[in-house]
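> forwarded from #structure-qc
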């Protein structure tokens, strides 16, 4: 995992910051005492824990409670307690190495597939802990789908079969039913009109943006409740990025979407709520407009205004 530049030595929630460079020295507001940091962190954690089930009157589709994650002996997430409001877009931002993608992968049990990956705490889908002993991870991922940073269509399959494969793996067999669901998924991904006359061509013949929307269609085909997106537009051109962002706005009418992005402008455009993370810790969670205009934590302000990261 990459670290912050040398200008910021430590910006942990319960620790003061050591400022080294002249530019970083301007951020003197970040040097609160340890006691003050602990009080703020404790209050924030308590507040989030009590409001988890509803956020601004909205039910939470997914919640984490004291979520911790490791790669071997290295702890990557430090006690994340966080709600994700239903049918809203939540963006997770922060500098490289802050734990954004690790958090996302913990939400559908992908992290435990990483070498040395392990998790403690809870991820609650409704009232069920997805890490419970009786939970089948494969079945659970039908409800919490994921779209990765780079388009990953199945290279030997047609456009149609890329979407149909997900349905067949879940037991759907009727040809008419599969075809109908494939069309519905491609329509939801705003791709149907572009590919309806070439469904049996190889998926690799699509442009990068079309391939990414195909992967979104594949995730939607099994009708998940939540869609995780790990920097879904980072490898795309501006026009394709615009298509994906428009699609996210349409999909939130039906799905809860959680997106990791390095692009703060993108987070501001597409999300309703934003999470700011730093060194594996939750710094701030707030409505996007509030976090970007009047953040509560000085570290959030320092990152948003470009003073580090």
């Amino acid at each position: 995992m990459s670290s912050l530049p040398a200008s910021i030595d430590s910006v942990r929630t319960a620790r003061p910051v050591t400022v080294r460079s002249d530019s970083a020295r301007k951020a003197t507001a970040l040097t609160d005492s340890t006691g003050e940091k602990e009080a703020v962190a404790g209050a924030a954690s308590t507040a989030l824990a009590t409001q988890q089930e509803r956020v601004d009157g909205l039910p939470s589709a997914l919640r984490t409670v004291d979520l911790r994650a490791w790669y071997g002996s290295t702890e990557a997430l430090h006690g994340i307690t966080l709600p994700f409001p239903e049918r809203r877009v939540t963006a997770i931002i922060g500098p490289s190495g802050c734990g954004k993608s690790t958090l996302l992968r913990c939400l559908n049990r992908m992290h435990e597939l990483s070498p040395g990956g392990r998790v403690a705490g809870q991820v609650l889908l409704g009232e069920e802990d997805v890490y419970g002993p009786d939970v089948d991870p494969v079945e659970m991922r039908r409800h919490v789908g994921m779209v990765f940073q780079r388009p990953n269509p199945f290279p030997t399959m047609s456009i149609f079969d890329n979407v149909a494969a997900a349905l067949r793996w879940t037991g759907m067999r009727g040809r008419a039913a599969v075809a109908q669901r494939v069309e519905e998924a491609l329509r939801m991904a705003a791709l149907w009109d572009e590919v309806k006359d070439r469904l049996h061509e190889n998926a690799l013949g699509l442009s990068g943006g079309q391939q990414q929307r195909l992967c979104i269609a594949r995730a939607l085909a099994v009708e998940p409740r939540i869609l995780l997106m790990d920097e879904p537009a980072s490898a795309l051109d501006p026009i394709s990025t615009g298509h994906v962002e428009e699609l996210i706005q349409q999909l939130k009418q039906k799905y809860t979407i959680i997106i990791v992005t390095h692009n703060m402008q993108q987070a501001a455009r597409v999300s309703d709520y934003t999470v700011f993370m730093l060194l594996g810790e939750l710094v701030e969670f707030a409505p996007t407009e509030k976090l970007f205009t009047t953040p509560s934590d000085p570290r959030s302000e320092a990152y948003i205004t470009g003073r580090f990261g």
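QC bot note: Confidence is low (pLDDT under 50) at residues 1-35. The radius of gyration is 20 Å.
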